[in-house]
């Protein structure tokens, strides 16, 4: 018999329990953090083997079929993507494939192959299964009953019954979420063009190819502040779904990129698409003949995309026949700028999510004020000539150098010479030898500087002539007023007129000298 005295006190029991709980938590955290996934699986299977009787009734299996009726089962799709990340060296059979336009090999599990995953300490067993399904096929002439066997695939997910709630409410949502991120990460960005690549159009008005444009924010030579602002703006835009809903605004953002040719407007669009993994729809206005054409095109663009209209200033015809004459252009077979803007402001933007619209132009000053009015385009981005900071990025990208003795000279020249990143890139590509390539940049900059100085001299001369003549007139008027025929200005003027030999320009200079 135990005496009451020999029993531990309640506080002692609680304190022992607290220490044990803390110890277990520490062990669990060490287990999760420091023990590799494969070893975790192994240890858990041994540990569970001791305590859990091998009764099948203790386990539960969820079947995740590939198709739900005629549509693909999203849980199956997500599981397939997710399990690709769980393939470790213990997996014995794999399937490898590659579609013609894909860049990398697709590795998937083979049927019958088991994959073990651990989630919050729970062991989950995945297995890909296939089964035959009978399907009525009117085209199969070999079968009396016109029945054909088709192979269906399904994942079996087994785990202990007691974790059903964890699996249903935490694990499967986690798999869905994770696969979405993975899908985004591996997504191949597409470039859609109206009327081109028709074989790839899938019946819609847009044809597509993979966007193989290598431009990214890392390769883009623009001011670092501008780059940071832009990236932040894009990040904020994509995470603001709820915000746009709350304030009752369509979830879209408009950018107007303006600047001289070769400053990276198109490259920036590609960088944005690559960064967000958004497809690009390149809308060429010259291919559009009516507002109904435009409506059809715009409604058939997908969410999470960038609609680009390049060189909007070249669409003068649209502006002329459209916006200004809006009152009489109501017929369905005309295309107008107001039609485009209406879509952007209203109908189209409210029927889609996460849309970005980009207009590019070389001449912002030529744009219709309807496009420039506040609120139409959210950001106006000036793409300008190459700065030294931009040059250094290009040199690093093209030549792989961070510094060079010619950098100082180039920096000085860039302060006064306008050169586009496209021109710099072209020179840098001409020679693998950094010394030679940079020397060519210096040559080009010096040549541009000479041309610019000459142009400035000419401008100055014209201005100086104008000012001098002005001053001469004033002086002559003064001389006449003072009746001072001996004034140096008057004398100079008279002698110049009498000589009648020098040009007006020279006269102006001569007189200028006398005056000064
Ligand atoms: N800012 C930049 N950073 C890096 N490369 C650039 C940049 N600007 C231009 N380039 C290079 O020059 C090429 C042409 O640039 P891009 O087509 O983007 O210029 P653009 O401003 O769209 O010109 P346009 O007004 O003629 O359409 C690019 O493929 C790229 O190699
Ligand atoms: Mg361009």
Short description:
The protein is an alpha/beta fold.
* C-alpha Rg (nearest Å): 37 Å
Mind telling me which CATH architecture of the largest domain this is? Answer: 3-Layer(aba) Sandwich
Mean pLDDT score: 78
Count of distinct structural domains: 3
By secondary-structure content and strand pairing, the structural class works out as alpha/beta
Q: What does it look like?
A:
This protein is an alpha/beta fold and 516 residues long. It folds into 3 domains: 27-186, no CATH class; 191-382, 3-Layer(aba) Sandwich (Rossmann fold), CATH 3.40.50; 456-515. Helices cover 47% and strands 18% of the residues. The chain contains 18 helices and 15 strands. The chain has helices at residues 10-34, 37-51, 74-84, 164-186, 224-238, 241-247, 265-276, 291-299, 316-321, 337-345, 347-350, 369-372, 388-399, 407-416, 421-428, 434-482, 488-499, 504-515, and strands at residues 59-65, 67-68, 71-72, 94-97, 106-109, 114-119, 122-136, 147-160, 190-194, 206-210, 252-258, 279-282, 305-309, 355-361, 379-382. The protein has a 7-stranded mixed beta sheet with strand order 10-9-12-13-14-11-15, covered by helices on one side. Strands 1-8-7-6 form a 4-stranded antiparallel beta sheet. Strand 4 (94-97) and strand 5 form a beta hairpin. The termini are far apart. The structure holds adenosine-5'-triphosphate (ATP) and magnesium ion. The site of adenosine-5'-triphosphate has 16 residues, from helix 7 and helix 15.
């Amino acid at each position: 018999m135990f005496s009451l005295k020999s029993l531990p006190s309640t506080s002692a029991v609680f304190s022992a329990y607290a220490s044990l709980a803390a110890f277990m938590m520490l062990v669990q955290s060490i287990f999760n953090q420091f023990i590799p996934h494969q070893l975790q699986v192994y240890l858990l299977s041994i540990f569970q083997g001791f305590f859990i009787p091998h009764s099948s009734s203790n386990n539960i299996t969820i079947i995740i079929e590939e198709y739900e009726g005629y549509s693909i089962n999203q849980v199956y799709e997500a599981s397939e993507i997710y399990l690709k990340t769980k393939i470790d060296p213990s997996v014995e059979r794999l399937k490898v494939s590659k579609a013609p336009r894909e860049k990398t090999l697709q590795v998937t599990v083979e049927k019958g192959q088991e994959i073990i995953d651990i989630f919050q300490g729970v062991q989950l067993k995945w297995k890909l299964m296939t089964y035959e399904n009978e399907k009525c096929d009117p085209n199969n002439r070999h079968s009396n009953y016109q029945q054909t066997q088709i192979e269906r695939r399904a994942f079996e997910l087994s785990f202990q019954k007691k974790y059903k709630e964890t699996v249903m409410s935490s694990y499967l949502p986690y798999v869905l979420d994770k696969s979405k991120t993975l899908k985004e990460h591996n997504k191949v960005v597409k470039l859609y063009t109206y009327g081109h690549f028709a074989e790839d159009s899938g019946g819609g008005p847009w044809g597509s190819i993979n966007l193989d444009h290598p431009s990214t924010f890392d390769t883009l030579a623009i001011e670092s502040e501008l780059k940071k602002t832009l990236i932040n703006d894009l990040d904020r835009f994509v995470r603001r779904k709820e915000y746009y809903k709350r304030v009752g605004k369509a979830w879209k953002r408009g950018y107007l990129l303006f600047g001289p040719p070769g400053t990276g407007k198109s490259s920036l669009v590609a960088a944005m698409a690559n960064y967000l993994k958004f497809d690009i729809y390149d809308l060429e206005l010259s291919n559009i003949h009516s507002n109904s054409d435009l409506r059809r095109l715009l409604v058939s663009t997908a969410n999470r995309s960038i609609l680009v209209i390049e060189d909007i200033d070249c669409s003068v015809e649209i502006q002329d026949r459209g916006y200004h004459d809006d009152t009489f252009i109501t017929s369905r077979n005309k295309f107008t700028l107001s039609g485009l803007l209406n879509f952007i402001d209203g109908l189209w933007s409210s029927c889609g999510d996460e849309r970005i619209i980009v207009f590019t132009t070389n001449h912002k000053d030529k744009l219709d004020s309807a496009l420039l009015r506040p609120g139409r385009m959210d950001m106006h981005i000036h793409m300008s000539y190459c700065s030294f900071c931009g040059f250094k990025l290009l040199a690093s990208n093209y030549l792989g150098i961070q510094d060079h003795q010619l950098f100082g000279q180039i920096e000085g020249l860039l302060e006064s010479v306008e050169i586009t990143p496209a021109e710099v890139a072209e020179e840098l590509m001409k020679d693998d030898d950094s010394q030679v390539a940079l020397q060519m940049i210096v040559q080009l900059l010096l040549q541009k500087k000479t041309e610019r100085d000459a142009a400035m001299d000419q401008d100055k001369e014209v201005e100086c002539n104008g000012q001098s003549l002005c001053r001469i007139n004033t002086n002559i008027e003064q001389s006449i007023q003072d009746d001072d025929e001996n004034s140096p200005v008057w004398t100079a003027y008279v002698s110049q007129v009498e000589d009648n030999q020098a040009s007006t320009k020279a006269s102006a200079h001569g007189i200028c000298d006398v005056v000064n």
